[in-house]
Amino acid sequence: MVSVLALAGGAVFAPAAAADEQRAKEYWLDSYGIRDAWKTSQGEGVKVAVIDSGIDASHPDLKGAVVGGTDVSGAGAPNGQRGIGATPEHGTLVATLLAGRGHTEQKGKDKDKDKDEEKPKSSVGAGPDGVIGVAPKAELLAVSTWLGSPNPAGVGIEEQIPAAVRWAVDSGAQVINMSLTSSTTSWPESWDDAFLYAEQNDVVIVAAAGNRAGGTEQSGAPATIPGVLTVAGLSRDGEASQKASAQSIVIGVAAPAEDLIGGMPGGQYANWSGTSGATPLVSGVAALIRSKYPDMSAGQVINRIISTTSDAGVPGHDPIYGFGILDAEAALNADVPAVSGNPLGSIAQWITIHRRGEAAPPSPAPVENNVKEEPAVPEPTTPVAEEPRLEGDVLPGILVVGFGILLLAVLGLGVQQTLRARRLAQAEESS
């Protein structure tokens, strides 16, 4: 059972400046090859499900981005587009980083100017202001969950998470973003079938590693589920974040997690940190890849991301940076050999080994103490040596023969004694 499940944005949200000042703060767009990747793909035609606290689709930077949604908590809006839980703004922050489209900010005299005199639109997104996401032309599915505090509707995480994953798959999601974590590496058995369903339907799942500042020293589920791409956090300088990233052998890739900027409900903005923010950056890259290579399997998409990283820390895979630091342009355009499966494992295989393998064998039928009917004694043969073995309560044939011979000997002796006694008695009578 997952004892604590919470959203992985551990830092306190700080109000940010106006929309027209946000784009310059998105340092990751240039530093991690995202702008270069846009020359090839911007996420067109790809649906990404955001399983989170709900998304405010009315945010100016998300206009037209959210194409559907649901609530699995029983306490949110039916379309998943109202923030709920302990951090209701969380889902909107994640969504803008993933697929924000920006907008054109009009203020003061600009509002009275002719439309032809408006600020020129950006080549990516709807305008030069606000937050632009990694995949600005991807479509979002909002799935609201109640996490971080008791759910007033009484629906537990054991039910919410599998329901959310299944709905996302059935609604056409090709990528699922889960900026949430738990306090344990294990997960409820109720999650198995849902993650297996996503695997069988070729869906990429990206999850947060969790934050040390939030008390997560080691990544918990869903990051630990085989096949899930787990994202660790980096500082602005590209070093492992000391506050915004847990460590774990399951980490696949590292991405920016500090000094982030995202949209808040009501058209506002906030500065924030945490692997909750790093995760949608990687999900966005997965969407770019799926848009460019629509026939590419989920395993190959993940392989492109982790095999084109810039190695950091100790050589090769490590529990801090995973396979390395995200490089969006390389993930999209590098020559990467195809793989036959997901390099991060398979939930199907895990279930076979760990769930079905743990099933207790049926209890053996009680052994009765009654001696079974003795088989007929065979004709004497030359004995052949055999390995020692037990045959229940049936006596070995040689033992039966031995008892028979002993019994005949006793009977013979008894007859002899009886005849001798009779002769002695007769002799006494005749005398």
Architecture overview:
This protein has 431 residues and is α/β, with parallel strands linked by helices. The chain has 2 domains: 5-104 and 122-357, Rossmann fold (3-Layer(aba) Sandwich), CATH 3.40.50.200; 398-431. Helices cover 28% and strands 15% of the residues. The protein is built from 10 helices and 14 strands. The protein has helices at 28-31, 34-38, 90-99, 157-170, 192-200, 275-292, 298-307, 328-333, 347-355, 397-430; strands at residues 5-7, 14-15, 47-52, 66-71, 101-103, 129-132, 139-144, 175-178, 180-182, 204-208, 229-234, 251-256, 260-264, 268-272. The strands form 4 sheets. The protein has a 7-stranded parallel β-sheet with strand order 4-7-3-8-10-11-12, sandwiched between helices. Helix 3 (90-99) runs parallel beside helix 6 (275-292), helix 4 packs parallel to helix 5 and helix 6 (275-292) crosses helix 7 (298-307). The longest helix is centred in the C-terminal third of the chain and has 34 residues, at 397-430. The protein is globular. The model is unreliable at 111-122 and 359-411 (pLDDT under 50).
